[in-house]
Amino acid sequence: MRSPVSDYLAEVLEGCAGDTSGANADYIPELARADSDRFAVAVATLTGYVHGAGDTDVMFTMQSISKPFVHALALQDRGLPAFLDKIDVEPSGEAFNELSLEEGTTRPRNPMINAGAITTSTLVGEPDSTLAHRWERILGGLSAFAGRELEVDEAVFSSELETAHRNLAIAHMLRGYDTITEDPEAVVANYTRQCSLRVTTRDLALMAATLANGGVQPLTGERVVDPPVVREVLSVMTTCGMYDAAGDWVTRVGIPAKSGVAGGIIGALPGQVGLAVFSPRLDEHGASVRGVRVCERLSQEMGMHLMEAPAPARSVLRESGVREVDGIGTAHVYALQGMLQFAGVEQVLHDLTEEPPSTPQVVLDLSQVYSVNSVGRRMLREAVRRLGLDGLTVHVVDPEGMLD
Amino acid sequence: MRSPVSDYLAEVLEGCAGDTSGANADYIPELARADSDRFAVAVATLTGYVHGAGDTDVMFTMQSISKPFVHALALQDRGLPAFLDKIDVEPSGEAFNELSLEEGTTRPRNPMINAGAITTSTLVGEPDSTLAHRWERILGGLSAFAGRELEVDEAVFSSELETAHRNLAIAHMLRGYDTITEDPEAVVANYTRQCSLRVTTRDLALMAATLANGGVQPLTGERVVDPPVVREVLSVMTTCGMYDAAGDWVTRVGIPAKSGVAGGIIGALPGQVGLAVFSPRLDEHGASVRGVRVCERLSQEMGMHLMEAPAPARSVLRESGVREVDGIGTAHVYALQGMLQFAGVEQVLHDLTEEPPSTPQVVLDLSQVYSVNSVGRRMLREAVRRLGLDGLTVHVVDPEGMLD
Amino acid sequence: MRSPVSDYLAEVLEGCAGDTSGANADYIPELARADSDRFAVAVATLTGYVHGAGDTDVMFTMQSISKPFVHALALQDRGLPAFLDKIDVEPSGEAFNELSLEEGTTRPRNPMINAGAITTSTLVGEPDSTLAHRWERILGGLSAFAGRELEVDEAVFSSELETAHRNLAIAHMLRGYDTITEDPEAVVANYTRQCSLRVTTRDLALMAATLANGGVQPLTGERVVDPPVVREVLSVMTTCGMYDAAGDWVTRVGIPAKSGVAGGIIGALPGQVGLAVFSPRLDEHGASVRGVRVCERLSQEMGMHLMEAPAPARSVLRESGVREVDGIGTAHVYALQGMLQFAGVEQVLHDLTEEPPSTPQVVLDLSQVYSVNSVGRRMLREAVRRLGLDGLTVHVVDPEGMLD
Amino acid sequence: MRSPVSDYLAEVLEGCAGDTSGANADYIPELARADSDRFAVAVATLTGYVHGAGDTDVMFTMQSISKPFVHALALQDRGLPAFLDKIDVEPSGEAFNELSLEEGTTRPRNPMINAGAITTSTLVGEPDSTLAHRWERILGGLSAFAGRELEVDEAVFSSELETAHRNLAIAHMLRGYDTITEDPEAVVANYTRQCSLRVTTRDLALMAATLANGGVQPLTGERVVDPPVVREVLSVMTTCGMYDAAGDWVTRVGIPAKSGVAGGIIGALPGQVGLAVFSPRLDEHGASVRGVRVCERLSQEMGMHLMEAPAPARSVLRESGVREVDGIGTAHVYALQGMLQFAGVEQVLHDLTEEPPSTPQVVLDLSQVYSVNSVGRRMLREAVRRLGLDGLTVHVVDPEGMLD
């Protein structure tokens, strides 16, 4: 059997290929010259398998897609409060290259506009680090997200640096406000280098999957950043990642995402998948025209939308009843199954509360449980403790150590 | 055993009770006079059980919390395109009572600011309906969300209508732009009536749970609105529901939410729970001070954040192997378990693709599956079809009709 | 001889008549129906003579041209500080009917936008006056500016009041902020009545001439408002009277002016003339297309621009020398001429300082002086006092009482 | 006799000296170190006499006061249309160092904000000139305004260039928009040099007087720029020269003016005087605190306000009657006096029209006229032509060539 997933992706690609509207980014000569017809989509699972269709191995530069990953590194290195001292997290309602600072302060509006991203790149590594070391941290960190050593496209880097007037303007302004304290020209060089890292659509899908996977690279198993960092980065991508305005993307697509002017777009659906699309022609917001259409189709057809709740869970309580248990004797057995979050565990506790166990011995069987989150774990532990206080003996069957 | 959930909620309440900062809404005399010390929290499960702590049965008026529900009714009655013709979905970055229209158009920025909510109230029911009928639809619809007949607090309604200068200003402006076409004074009366509906914190938790439950009221089982409507409403609550700026709430709390100036706040986490808090003292954004703190604690301590992915799923493939099956004979049995979304089904298909079944007979056992979403269902059906094309005989064991 | 002035005006009219671009105001049915081809220009001297060309006796409604005159009445009745408490004087950069308030306050940006003008209309008369009395004051005051009893065009008034949605929106908002304290509907009725006063182009030229004349109506000789009021009104007309932006009008025309949507424009050049134009087709700013063109031509061709300095004054010192004077004997005679402002008097004082009088008797002959302003008067008086302190005897010949 | 003018200025200085609020500019170390107590005022007449009080010979740097003069040079060199292609003339409502561009274009809002002034400095001289030549033109031109060779304060220049982060930001942005096409660093160097020119309060008064005098330096008699250039520059100073908002300055002071962060302020009243004040402590808008107070007093006490009309002119018609004239015989003599602008000449023409000359011979005696503007001249010429067409013989007595 051929996997229907790749077939489906090929079908989506074909369905969107006819849209040749938009145009390559024109302000960087190297991007203007790129082959406009390239088109690729890739979906990476949290187990590291990548489904793809189209030109998934063609190299292009990350451009603004580097922003959320450097944002993640800066948060990992400095912590959230230090980061928020410098950069806010509000959608700007303005184009990506505006010199937008938060009113009454010297903070860029968010880390996804250039002013914020340039500042972010100076928050990677130690406070007293050199710019050379910061660059090594960025290169190493983004490579860890990708699971392979990334390299700079030197032709794009040179081309981009020569015409980096607006970024120089932004950096000088940030220097004027002491928002950055290093040499503006050198800071812009680092930032431009980060934008010039070469990736494939496949790379990007895996980088996005690392975010969807809570910060652990699916292939290498390396923890690149911690879960709270991922939560913050995905939140910011949700409101500030696409377009100048947050509402349209959240309602229509509902996937935390980021676009780059070379034509790439990434999306990360927490706990599910990372995805990436590549097509160089851009819309008026600077996002890939066909990339946006692919995202819309995946959101609608595959239910990949933050607000798309799974169908209400059937009971996680697989079995509840009194029977003989080997080595224990007569016991009330509660066998749970599936994924235990607040809602499911609450149901079990509800039952325990309304109708207490009918025998002094209680078995809590978690062998069919495949996932539990922190609140679920704490609720179950508390239930075990309370049943003990009620004078019952509780035996927990937990071969996978779900409650540890 | 006492349920630890209510105990936990009581603990949260106690932890936040000390914050007596803020002040009652002062521009409506009746609200100014409310008892500032009231404090309640409630969490409603999708099965309709409500955990609560504090003054969960004290009545207060919905105020702006009515907005997302009337938004839902308007979407249900008119459809999304007709709605978007009149009202945009972008966060306004402005206070709730500003006369903010989208630049260059006559569309209010979103349905959560007053200009948008007043317009929304005229989009409920049929286009040629009378305002009296629109009111009946609003009253009936919001009662359906709550699962009981709601009533107007006539004292608040009168008090509010007398001082409704700004809403009258907004309505006259909207009339000037033909965004609304009915009498501005009568439209404001209907809108004020909707804001004056009396609810308890318990009611609000169930109304929120109806949204979390995809539009079906957990207690009555009534489908109040369709799933696409819920998806749109929750998306808009995410970016426009709290505060003037979207980023702060999404990063810090990450729950689609809405506040009202009487002191209520609701939150709805899709597929999980509805929650509600009540405490009359407001912050500078017009949201309940203690209500916001409770939301922050629930988000952090209970993992109730949109970006909080559950721990990566263990395999949904409970069993894969060749064995004798009653009434079939030797077969390769694939037994699935848990909740089947894209990611899980993809793993099964991946296995089927990499290592095809070793016998001509295949059993797909879904009896341990408790949930499947539309893309998972389609992927499994397609797999069954393809295995058939490959010449295999596939027996689907699906006692709950998961693939129907 | 026929006066070349009227011929010149006829020539200007003819030169601009070909421009039939723009369109009548369309939001008030009565204005939409007006004859679009009407065209008139009038220039009123400070002696009350009116030169005109075209349809100078056709009646139309004042609309926003009423604003500076009601502004003048409010300043006269309440004084500048009380007025500034309620309304600022900054150009708004926004369209005339926006609900623009100064940021962080509840003051309309200036008295020329509708929010400011509506508020202004409530500041006429005594603070505790009724709206009926305020209307009488407005009607009487504007009639005094015109030099005849003005009347309301009842058809326009009714038509305008029926579609006054935006003004009602503004008034309700102002009421919400307590910027106005009277019934919004009644305030808008008064304001609409003021806009519906009927005038001819000739009337408007005389009303403008009253401002140019320091507040004294040239024909009736009545002092309608005081000089400081006029100075404030003309200043505000300069920056806020035309278009949404101040710079363009000040640089290109440089005449304090105000337009109305019925097609009228007035201009007042202090100390020189009042002018008025009428042509109903409006540009995108709501100002008469041909009216603006006429103003531009008059500014350029007649040197009617605030920055157009008269050619540098020849000496105001007509004679300086020692001779025999009847009844006095030998004296140093200083005979002055023309208009004495700071610059001219300074020259005389300069001479007296550099080269003191050569005789103990000094004659200061002002019989050829036709005008002196307050600083010139004070400087001359001080010079007389100082010459006395120097031991000289000063005889002032001042048949017109210029120094009194 | 001592001139009362200087005494008056000394009195004004003394009256304002007590206000020691505000603080030196702090972002340029050299300015921060300046003696805060310095205080000077100077008034220059159009004949080149300078009245002064206080530290009128202390040197300080022009800073933003250089802007209107370089604006004048650019207009003189390139013409108004070419200038307006690059820079608009609207007040920005923003602080002087904002990167404000006109919406939807790449034009700085006006030549008085830094973005506009930096662009303006590249429009001096020929389009293909080098930056070195542009600097020579700026240095030469500003020296011509002052009437002496100005020099750069090298310490301030270096200090300012080192901390010119925001101006570098602005210049890079302008380069990014192709609003400027030269090297941003070199452009900022030229601009900073222009700001660092050293002047005294006396110098500034004469530079302002050159503007008030229509572009002719009062002492040297050199025409520095043409009258239309002066008209444009003074118009822009009126709306954009002081503060971020135009209305306040125009209403309260009404003098075209410009301030600099070293503490200087200039004002130019067309046809009357140039004035300058110096006091280093600045208000929140970056204008000298005591400088603003002095301007307010001069405006109020000396009637130096654009809207302050001189008292209505007495008749310019000194004599009208039939008498014997030497060498002509019986003639109707019209003897005019004073300054002839539109208003005065119109009166004479009015008389000639209403009551035609009673003899075939007419004498028009202009020997007592000391000034006539272009429209007055054209009106009189036309009257002479028309009287000739009516069959009359007109003898013009014009010893000063007023009608030429």
From TrEMBL, chains A, B, C, D:
Keywords: Acetylation, Hydrolase. It is an enzyme of class 3 (hydrolase). One of its GO terms (biological process) is glutamate biosynthetic process. The keyword Electron transport does not apply. Substrate binds at residues 64, 114, 160, 167, 191, 243, 261. Pfam families: Glutaminase, STAS. The keyword Hydrolase applies. It comes from the Bacteria. SUPFAM superfamilies: beta-lactamase/transpeptidase-like, SpoIIaa-like. Its EC number is 3.5.1.2. It catalyses: L-glutamine + H2O = L-glutamate + NH4(+). NCBIfam families: Gln_ase, PRK00971.1-4. PANTHER family: GLUTAMINASE (PTHR12544). Belongs to the glutaminase family. Homotetramer. This is Glutaminase. The gene is glsA.
